[in-house]
Amino acid sequence: MRYEAPNSVEAAIDLLAATEGAYVLAGGTDLLVKLRAEMLEPELVVDIKRISGMKGITPEDGGWRIGAAVSGAEMGEHAGLTGDWPGVVEAVGLIGSTQVQGRATLAGNLCNASPAADSVPAMVAANATLRIVGPKGSRDVAVIDVPASPGKTTLGSGEFIASVFLPAKPDHGGDAYLRFIPRTEMDIAVVGCGVSLVLDGAGKVSAARVSLGAVGPKVMLVDAAAEALIGRAPKGDALEDLAAVCSAAATPIDDKRGTVDFRRHVAGVLARRATEIAATRAKGETA
Amino acid sequence: MSQIHVTTSINGDTTEFLCEAEDTLLDVLRDRLGMTGSKEGCGTGDCGACSVTVDGRLVCSCLMLGAEAEGREVTTIEGMATGDQLHPLQQKFIEMAALQCGICTPGILVAAKSLLEKNPDPTEEEVRYWLAGNLCRCTGYDKIIRAVMETAADLRRAS
């Protein structure tokens, strides 16, 4: 294995495109585990942390551009980002331990392509986009379009994610992410749910995005869940309808962490609770 | 394959080493630099026994390549005491018997020191969450948590 730490995006693309079996290293919290387990035997590891901008959180068009190598800990310490998108920041903060937070990244969580990745449903709910760079130039892609199947993404040869863009937080908007794990910390989601919504002057939902993780081969954006909320106050029957839609949309498997029936049920419960938190935040209150 | 030449700072001392691309920082510390205070428990970032700080950030040295340390500032458990003078956390762990076999202890001390530098007055809940990635199979954690809380209180009184 070779290790390279180029200092430009172009140099990184050249290295990745020229080498069969090249892998990108940002936080390394998944890559190094796979190296040790010999699940991967790369010819080349390209460390992108020396490239300008990869460690930056910068305002852009009212939103935030987050470099691909920004760690969860750095996101959690950023007041502006935490104020605008608390659900996304909390979701990334759920990944692993304090030590893992010191290195783990949004882009890495996405590219690891686990169906149970915590930050991914939150990014989907927030309508985050990615700047993907590669031999053919750069393209902006919605997060929902990147996971292909467990362990697989739609990124092409030589491509890597340079940054994640969280759009401007809408006025009277709020987001939240919840997951279920049988422990209190250091575990992998049995079900995860991200919600982002906007309230109108009457307190009714005018726009919503609801996403589910760990209940299918990849993250899902549940349009019917958004439809269950829009035009209604986020409480009572609207939340019951939302829960029923999310339970029905879930397509989980039975495994050691949860059964199909349990996961379906919890998908609805988490959608309801995350919506309540997002609505509280949309009103400008703390939740 | 030629080895990678790395210049870094470890516990304040400029240090140079040669490593293979696949060597983790933990491999380098233990096997190339003879700094065996950092332990390998799991090698997969689950147990925290290899905890160090890099540029002030708490990380697992088993989840980082040695080559990544170029130009960084690494601190390890070996840098915690000042000569024969133990760090207050080390002293308190001894006084309160917050260890049994000791394998997890270096990682827990490094992690706890990092917490108290960021938050001198943590709640018990905050200590427990901060140390959730440091596994101890002997103590049941109670003495460890109490030792960290007591040290924090001592340090606040002293400052």
Question: What structural keywords apply?
Answer:
heterodimer, A: alpha+beta, Enolase-like, domain 1, 5-stranded antiparallel sheet, 4-stranded antiparallel sheet, 14 strands, B: 159 residues, alpha+beta, Ubiquitin-like (UB roll), 5-stranded mixed sheet, 34% helix
Structure classification of chain A: alpha+beta
The N- to C-terminal Cα distance of chain A equals: 47 Å
Distance between the termini of chain B: 52 Å
CATH architecture grouping of the domain at 173-282 in chain A: 2-Layer Sandwich
How much strand content do the residues of chain A show? 25-35%
Our Rg estimate of chain B from Cα atoms comes to: 16 Å
> What is the tally of helical segments of chain A?
11
Largest β-sheet summary of chain B: 5 strands, mixed
Organism (chain B): Roseovarius marisflavi
Pfam family, one (chain B): Fer2_2
GO molecular function (chain B): 2 iron, 2 sulfur cluster binding; metal ion binding; oxidoreductase activity
Keywords (chain B): 2Fe-2S, Iron, Iron-sulfur, Metal-binding, Oxidoreductase
